[in-house]
Design brief:
220 residues; alpha+beta; 2,3-Dihydroxybiphenyl 1,2-Dioxygenase, domain 1; 5 helices; 24% helix; binds fe (ii) ion
Length: 220
Amino acid sequence: MSRVSRVDHIAYAVAQGMIEKWAWYHIEVEGGKLTKRVDDVRPDDPDSSMKLWCIDFESFGVVLVEGIDRKKKSQVTAFSDCHGDHSVQHIAFDTENLEQFVARAISRGVNLRGQQLVSNDGFGDLKQLFGKGYAKQNAAEMSFPEYVERPKQGTQMSTSVPQNTGKNFYQRIENARNSGDTSTLIDFSLMPSDWSPNSTQEASAPESTQPNKQKAPNHV
Ligand SMILES: [Fe+2]
C-alpha cells in the first residue's frame, strides 16, 4: 500500500536574478498560474532572505526560491551555487494522514526537521513537515523531502496557527546551518539486515498484484 499519494509540489532553487525568467518559463511555456509571490520572506533579517513564488498546475505545484544575500550568503544562493540554476531543493509528497505517516516513519528511524506546521503555502491550506537532508552535508546545500496533508473535499482545515511557509523552512535550515547540524533523514541501521523488496511485497500484497514475482538474487 502506497503511503504517499502524489507529488504535491517541487521546489527549485534558482540562481540570482533568475526567478522572473523561470517564472516566465513555467507560466508561458508550461501553462502554470502564479498563485503566490513573496519578494522577500524575511525583510527584517539583516543576514539573508529569499524570494518565493508559487506556480500552480492544478494537480501539483512548482515553487521557485531565489536567495537574497545580505551580510551572509543566503542558503538558497548556497544551494544553487552548489547544484546549479533551477536545481531541485525539495519535493513535497501528499499523504492521506500526516500524523499516521509520521508516526510510522519515525518508528523506522526517519529524522524530521522540527515539528508539524499548519500553514497556507500559495496552493492552499496544508499540514506540512520537513525531513532532514538525504545525505550528510551542509544543511543549506542538501535536498530534503517534505510531507504534507491537504484538506479532503468538503472539509476545512483549521489554520488557527498562522505560519509563513517560506519563513519557517528557511529558519529551520538556517538553524541547522548555523549549528553545523548535518544529521540525515534516515538512520539505515534500523533497516532489517535481511530486508529485500520481494519479502516486503510478499508480506503486504496479494500474489496477483506483484509485478516481479520471480526470485532475483539480492545482489543484483
Ligand atoms: Fe515545500
